[in-house]
Amino acid sequence: MSKLDPDVVIDLTSAKKATIPTIAPGLLLALSDGLVLALVGWTLNHFLGADALTEPLEAAAWQRSLVTGLMLVPLVKSVFGIYTLGRFDYMERTRRTFQAAFLCCAVLAVPFIVMEGFRSFFVEALSIALLGFAVTYVADLLLIQGLLSSALDWRTPVVIVGAGPQGAAIAEKLQRLPWLGMRPVGFVDDDDSLWQTRVAGLPVMGPVELLAKSPAVAGQATAAIVADMSRHGSDLTGLVRTLPFRQVYCVLGEGNVSAVDATYHNLHGSLALRVSVRPPTGYLRIRRAMDIVLSSILLVLVAPLMLGLAVAIKLDSPGPVMFRQKRWAGGKQTFDLLKFRSMHVDAEEQLQQLLENDPIAREEYMTYHKLTVDPRITPLGRFLRKTSLDELPQLWNILMGDMSLIGPRAYMPKELPEVGESAAVIGSVRPGLTGYWQVSGRHRTTFQERVAMDVFYVRNCGLLFDFFILCKTAVMVLKGDGS
Question: Under 8 Å CB-to-CB from 387, ≥6 apart: which residues?
Answer without folding.
Answer: 477, 480, 482
